[in-house]
């Protein structure tokens, strides 16, 4: 049996798979992958029957394509797959002949469409341009959806449903396989892991991307002091919801890359070169951007709700020394903890950096006290990070 990823998107006129990443057995304990025989156009599944795949056929601009989709996928994933093949964004896609009537909403599962193997349909739409957009126009600029948050720490049933969803498990595997990391400075033995968000967590994104304020004035107060304080106990991973080109720019402008401060950032992925600072004492390990995130589906007040998520399992699969036992994830959005609510620590969003209130912000001072306080705890799973501010307040300033 082949060990290739079952999600294979290709044009009939091209033998190269557009998305065909190698599959590995990940830390979630899953077994063999589902395999699609592209030539047979049959519904297939893995040995357990937990994942069923359907081959569809469509034409666009007079050219035939084949598409393999899992029944556990959503309509959202179908549209994303079509975009991968044709570069037509979902809002411009017109799908004819796939289902009777109007295509169901994005959260609908493919299984509910009752599709048969070999189903043919037509796609109409105009591809998007490949030009680089101004940062204020970026699709994933967090301020666009920053007020639409959801907290899973008080709803273990919903959190468990997220973690056990077959689609989400597969998305973690796919993201793990696609992520390429080069580590320049070795991870240190015995250190815990801090996964740190950027936008509105350690900086005010809006004035930075618009140029309204100098970069140094966009940073949250005590940022560099915070990193220096926790470094003896934690390796640090930066994970931002924006795209890599702007993430790299932010880190440089903030003085976290290419500066002569007394710490260094070590990172690498398949989207950029590597920047290093050689005269420092602090290491920050890989930087991840929005390409390592994927979309999940839930409800808020009986209304369908879609959002991206940061799955820590992707990091743990690459670095087995880290796990729920020794990882903490700091972010201003609780929804990013959806697959790992126990490891999440929500920090107040940092905005309006030019105001006196923002300049007097001491959130990172409090966070440093808390993280130093728990640094010697053997197993973080025994902690409730939701109470971190009360603990930091009781500790008082050092």
UniProtKB/TrEMBL annotation:
Pfam families: NIF
GO cellular component: nucleus
Residue segments, region Disordered: 1-32
PROSITE patterns for the chain: FCP1, UBIQUITIN_2
One term of GO molecular function: protein serine/threonine phosphatase activity
Gene3D superfamilies, sorted: HAD superfamily/HAD-like, Phosphatidylinositol 3-kinase Catalytic Subunit, Chain A, domain 1
InterPro entries (alphabetical): FCP1_dom, HAD-like_sf, HAD_sf, Ubiquitin-like_dom, Ubiquitin-like_domsf, UBLCP1
Residues in coiled coil: none
SUPFAM superfamilies from the UniProt entry: HAD-like (SSF56784), Ubiquitin-like (SSF54236)
Domain FCP1 homology: 187-374
GO biological processes: regulation of proteasome assembly
Ranges of residues in domain Ubiquitin-like: 62-130
Protein name: Nuclear proteasome inhibitor UBLCP1
Annotated source species: Piloderma croceum (strain F 1598)
Lineage, opening ranks: Eukaryota, Fungi, Dikarya, Basidiomycota, Agaricomycotina
